[in-house]
Amino acid sequence: xxxxxxxxxxxxxxxxxxxxxxxxxxxxxxxxxxxxxxxxxxxxxxxxxxxxxxxxxxxxxxxxxxxxxxxxxxxxxxxxxxxxxxxxxxxxxxxxxxxxxxxxxxxxxxxxxxxxxxxxxxxxxxxxxxxxxxxxxxxxxxxxxxxxxxxxxxxxxxxxxxxxxxxxxxxxxxxxxxxxxxxxxxxxxxxxx
Length: 193
Fold this sequence. Notes:
- It is built from five helices and nine strands; from the N terminus they run αβαββαββαββββα.
- It is an alpha+beta fold.
- The chain has two domains: 14-94, Alpha-Beta Plaits (2-Layer Sandwich); 101-185, Alpha-Beta Plaits (2-Layer Sandwich).
- Strands 6-7-5-9-8 form a five-stranded antiparallel β-sheet. It has a four-stranded antiparallel β-sheet with strand order 2-3-1-4.
- The two termini are 34 Å apart.
- Mean pLDDT is 83; it is low at 182-193.
C-alpha cells in the first residue's frame, strides 16, 4: 500500500494485533511520577496480584490484568483503590498511541554569562514541558560543559537541534541533545522482561 507521500506502509493482519492483551488491560496516567515505580505494589494492595505494568511514556501506563472481567470491574468501580494513584482510566483496547515520553535533554554550549535556570527553561520549553533541571545554575562545584533539563515531550523522533543565542550582540551556537539511555534506564525493572 502506498501512502500519500509515497512512503512505505506495512499492512498489519488482524492476527498480529494484541487484542487479547488489550481487552484485559486498563490505560491511565499515574497522578505523580513517583507512582510509576510503586504501581505494582499499589495494585497488589488492592488485590490485583497477577498484573503487568507497561510504561507507555510520560505518566501513562498500561496495566494488564489477569482477565477481561477484572479490567471491566476496575473501570466500573468509581471507588476502586487504584484510582487513588491513577486517573484518566479507560479500556486498554482504546489505546492507539502513547502520549509522549519523559526524558532528559542536554544543553551544550550555553554561555557562562547566562548560565541560569531561566535560560535553560527558555531553550528546553521549545521541546516540551519542563519537569526538572540539573546543573543549570552557577552556584556550587559542577561541570560547565552542559546543563540537563527533564521534559515531557510528544516529539516523535529523538531531539537533536543546533540553535543560536544572541547575548549582547555576540552569537553563540548551542546544541540540544536528548539522552537516549534515559528512555530505557529510568524505570528498568518496571514493564521490561
